[in-house]
């Protein structure tokens, strides 16, 4: 077994490589320097030369302001990688998906068989959903097995995205004011990055098949998140409430039972994860 991690230099990718290394699983890193996702033939050679049997696919462009790059990376590049995998003896692929494919407006935990309806203005989510459809379609006539891991809101040290938790961590580090806009009812399912990495490796090693929610299954509102941060700061941070005309009251909380039944459960609590971010 040899695993290729695409997006190995990304936020999640670095932790996946660390998890593979800790588990003494042979792997290679796919980066912009050694894998050109615009070159299907080059990727085919790379996979064969490195004797890749399993792929954890995390390489993706996430900026909704550039539709061309989203298409080139998340759709066209993914198509080429799947084509290369079919020619190269790859046996299994784990696809790093997103909870954003479900859209918003949910009032209960979202199971994997819920209808997908990415928000109209979230082109990233749309490209990731198309990526899911592509893997199902393109591998239907092959012997390659695969899983789609729909990851909930991931956070951890040194993340580039996720402005809310980054802002809260900065405020706690600097004993600054933490602002709460409106009632803070927006609710998300936050999962620590090492749990995501461990979940991706678990799916790959055990060759799970189908769609799975990689999440904690626990919803936390912005208000609860802010209150937790103030608790962690031992009261050094002060809460400031800011009135807003229209508040985001959406909730996206994933049902993680299917993955638990398969044998994996996220272990890092939000408090423990926040503390780890603050210490970095």
List the topology elements:
Blueprint: E1 3-6, H1 11-22, E2 27-30, H2 40-49, E3 54-57, H3 67-86, E4 92-98, H4 123-138, E5 145-151, E6 153-155, H5 163-173, E7 178-181, E8 187-188, E9 190-192, H6 193-205, E10 210-214, E11 220-221, H7 222-232, E12 239-242, E13 251-252, H8 257-262, H9 270-279
Parallel strand pairs: 1-2, 1-3, 3-4, 4-5, 5-10, 6-9, 7-12, 8-13
Antiparallel strand pairs: 8-11
Helix pairs in contact: 1-6, 2-3, 3-4, 5-9
Question: Can you tell me about this structure?
Answer:
This protein is α/β, with parallel strands linked by helices. It folds into two domains: 175 residues, 3-Layer(aba) Sandwich (Rossmann fold); 97 residues, UDP-galactose 4-epimerase, domain 1, CATH 3.90.25. A six-stranded parallel β-sheet has the order 2-1-3-4-5-10, sandwiched between helices. Strands 11-8-13 form a three-stranded mixed β-sheet. Helix 3 links the parallel strand 3 and strand 4. Helix 1 crosses helix 6 and helix 3 runs parallel beside helix 4. The longest helix has 20 residues. It is globular, with a radius of gyration of 19 Å.
Which short descriptors sum up this protein?
single chain; about 40% helix; Rossmann fold; 9 helices; about 280 residues; UDP-galactose 4-epimerase, domain 1; three-stranded mixed sheet; alpha/beta; six-stranded parallel sheet; about 20% strand
């Amino acid at each position: 077994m040899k695993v290729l991690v695409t997006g190995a230099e990304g936020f999640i990718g670095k932790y996946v490589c660390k998890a593979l290394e800790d588990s003494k699983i042979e792997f290679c890193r796919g980066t912009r320097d050694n894998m050109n996702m615009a070159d299907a033939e080059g990727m085919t050679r790379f996979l064969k030369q490195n004797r890749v049997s399993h792929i954890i696919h995390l390489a993706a462009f996430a900026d909704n302001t550039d539709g061309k790059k989203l298409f080139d990376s998340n759709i066209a590049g993914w198509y080429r990688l799947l084509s290369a995998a079919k020619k190269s003896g790859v046996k299994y692929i784990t696809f790093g998906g997103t909870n954003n494919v479900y859209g918003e407006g949910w009032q209960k935990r979202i199971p994997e068989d819920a209808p997908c309806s990415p928000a109209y203005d979230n082109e990233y989510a749309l490209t990731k959903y198309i990526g899911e459809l592509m893997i199902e379609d393109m591998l239907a006539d092959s012997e390659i097995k695969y899983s789609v891991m729909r990851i909930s809101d991931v956070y951890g040290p040194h993340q580039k995205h996720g402005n809310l938790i980054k802002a809260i961590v900065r405020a706690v580090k600097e004993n600054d004011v933490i602002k709460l806009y409106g009632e803070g009812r927006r609710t998300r399912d936050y999962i620590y990055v090492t749990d995501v990495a461990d979940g991706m490796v678990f799916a790959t090693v055990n060759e799970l098949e189908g769609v799975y929610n990689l999440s904690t299954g626990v919803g936390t509102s912005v208000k609860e998140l802010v209150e937790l941060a103030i608790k962690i700061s031992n009261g050094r941070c002060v809460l400031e409430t800011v009135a807003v005309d229209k508040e985001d009251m959406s909730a996206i909380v994933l049902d993680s039972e299917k993955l638990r039944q398969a044998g994996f459960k996220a272990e890092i609590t939000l408090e423990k994860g926040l503390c780890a971010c603050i210490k970095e």
